């Protein structure tokens, strides 16, 4: 199969599935992983898709990638981010944890800690942490979003506003080069804003794919975070913002 035809079919597959792995494409087209990586890199340079560790996807500013797909995207990077972030959390501390597959990965890493007090609007996070008898886990009230177990709405925001926690652990869907934190659901954004406002220290976990990714709802600005954990050096514009606002950066 000629390269142009193969690349057209790759785009069709990603449009149908949201995300495909390199291994899936190797099996589909019976070519080497190196050939597929070259195809994906070329298509990414033409802004036809976005490369992720182990595969590729197509971004939309209005609809997020499916939850089951996001769980496996850039998982190794998320695990490194989680390990570094959790190292900053002392035993016997309190925290908010918001919606997202990155924060769910962080929750798994938190299981090594002791006597944590957690308020979350993420059913998956609550399920992960509930296995520890010395953890006190509180689930925020509100509407459960069936696609990813997130809890959102005015009642959720009001619930969050009843607490003042040591840490706010947040994930994000996209980060614009002007520092804007972006997401897809305005109800989720309002809850995240309340988490930021009621946290003594805000810890943001975001793998490299979030930088430059578009989403239609503005949550706030990256300068509202106290510490950022990522797996690759952010764009120059972001680095300047972090330096100017004394935001601590950890590249893991």
Count of DSSP strands:
15
CATH T-level topology of the largest domain: Rossmann fold
Ranges with pLDDT <50 over ≥5 residues? none
Name the structural class: alpha/beta
The largest beta-sheet arranges its strands as 6-5-4-9-12-14-15
SSE order, one letter for each helix or strand: HEHHEEHHEHEHEEEHEEEHEEEHE
**Helix coverage percent of residues?**
25-40%
CATH architecture of the largest domain: 3-Layer(aba) Sandwich
Average pLDDT, all residues: 91
What is the count of structural domains?
A: 2
Write down the Rg. Answer: 19 Å
* CATH class category label of the largest domain: Alpha Beta
Essential attributes:
single chain; 252 residues; alpha/beta; Arc Repressor Mutant, subunit A; Rossmann fold; seven-stranded parallel beta sheet; three-stranded antiparallel beta sheet; 39% helix
Polypeptide structure, described:
Strand 5, helix 7 and strand 6 form a beta-alpha-beta unit. By secondary structure, the chain is an alpha/beta fold. The protein is built from 10 helices and 15 strands. It has a 7-stranded parallel sheet with strand order 6-5-4-9-12-14-15, with helices on both faces. It has a 3-stranded antiparallel sheet with strand order 1-3-2. Helix 2 (22-29) crosses helix 3 and helix 6 (101-109) packs parallel to helix 7. The termini are far apart. It is globular and about 60 Å long. The protein folds into 2 domains: 3-58, Orthogonal Bundle (Arc Repressor Mutant, subunit A); 74-251, Rossmann fold.
């Amino acid at each position: 199969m000629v390269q142009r035809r193969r690349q057209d079919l790759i785009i069709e597959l990603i449009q149908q599935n949201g995300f495909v792995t390199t291994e899936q494409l190797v099996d589909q087209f019976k070519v080497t992983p190196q050939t597929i990586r070259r195809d994906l890199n070329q298509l990414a340079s033409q802004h036809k898709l976005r490369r992720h560790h182990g595969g590729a996807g197509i971004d939309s500013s209005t609809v997020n990638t499916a939850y089951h797909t996001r769980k496996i995207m850039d998982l190794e990077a998320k695990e490194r981010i989680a390990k570094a972030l959790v190292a900053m959390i002392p035993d016997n501390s309190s925290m908010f944890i918001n919606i997202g597959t990155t924060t769910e990965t962080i929750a798994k890493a938190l299981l090594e800690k002791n006597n944590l007090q957690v308020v979350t609007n993420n059913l998956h996070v609550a399920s992960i942490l509930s296995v520890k008898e010395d953890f006190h886990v509180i689930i925020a009230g509100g509407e459960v979003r069936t696609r990813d177990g997130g809890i959102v709405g005015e009642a959720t925001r009001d619930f969050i506003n009843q607490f003042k926690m040591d840490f706010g652990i947040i994930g994000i869907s996209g980060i614009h080069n002007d520092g804007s934190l972006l997401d897809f659901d305005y109800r989720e954004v309002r809850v995240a804003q309340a988490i930021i406002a009621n946290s003594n220290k805000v810890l943001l976990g975001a793998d490299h794919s979030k930088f430059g990714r578009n989403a239609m709802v503005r949550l706030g600005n990256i300068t509202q975070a106290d510490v950022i954990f990522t797996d690759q050096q952010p764009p120059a514009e972001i680095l300047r913002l972090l330096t100017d606002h004394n935001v601590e950066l950890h590249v893991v």
